[in-house]
Amino acid sequence: MFFKKKRKLKVNQEQILKAPLPQHIAIILDGNGRWAKKRGLPRTAGHQEGAMNVREITKLCATIGIKALTVYAFSTENWKRPEEEIKFLMKLPIKFFDDFAPELVEHEIRLKVIGNVEQLPKDLQQKVQEITELTKDNKKMTLTIALNYGSQDEIKQAIQKIALEVQNGELAVDEIDESVIEQHLMTCDLPPLDLMIRTSGELRISNYLLWQLAYAELYFTSVAWPDFKEEQLYEALADYQARNRRFGALNESK
Ligand code: IPE
Ligand code: IPE
Ligand code: MG
User: What per-residue confidence (pLDDT) applies to 172?
Assistant: First the structure.
């Protein structure tokens, strides 16, 4: 009997680095819990491993010249999880920021947090402030962590700010255009989103960057976040580079 050989995706890193890379990558870091369960470990062990992986992938992205990486760490819907898990997820970033700070400095990475920071525990808010301040002048790459972030909430807040400006006579209704909306989003200082990666098999957006995703390329993989390493990132980049981004126009070059 003839079995078709399964093609192993071996990507050529050198070739990928010579071709245009996405400027801005967003990642929905999913599958930490399932990763741990598969190994007979508590879900928290998956989150721990996932946090370590954020450090590795961030450094790699900075090294190869990605300008912005935006990762989803805690959604406005994640408060529905068991109290114990939430408690762990509120402590984890404090240690993460402390351990990562010297590397952020070394790699010239600016740290930014989007989401409702003021609803986070005080010690985490302080840490966010501290690391944001420490890295604010770094120019190589921006690492944005979405913490207590929900895209619908972000859009709601943008609308409220715009409405207030109209009410105060600072802005006319017919001046509200796409760029005004963009300027009022939490991502206003980041380049346009080029590539969105979701790990662990779910084919949904889960309230992440709804506006920003308008013309991003979407990449879904069944690999759990803690297993998403250098090879998997290059596979995603190769896939992105093979796409024909038309932005609604005609582009028959590919
Ligand atoms: C992603 O992993 C991290 C967070 C949402 C905090 P999950 O915790 O969602 O892991 P799964 O999806 O249950 O495997
Ligand atoms: C999305 O993952 C949120 C984060 C990765 C922080 P979830 O695991 O919360 O998403 P759903 O519940 O599967 O949509
Ligand atoms: Mg999940």
Answer: 98
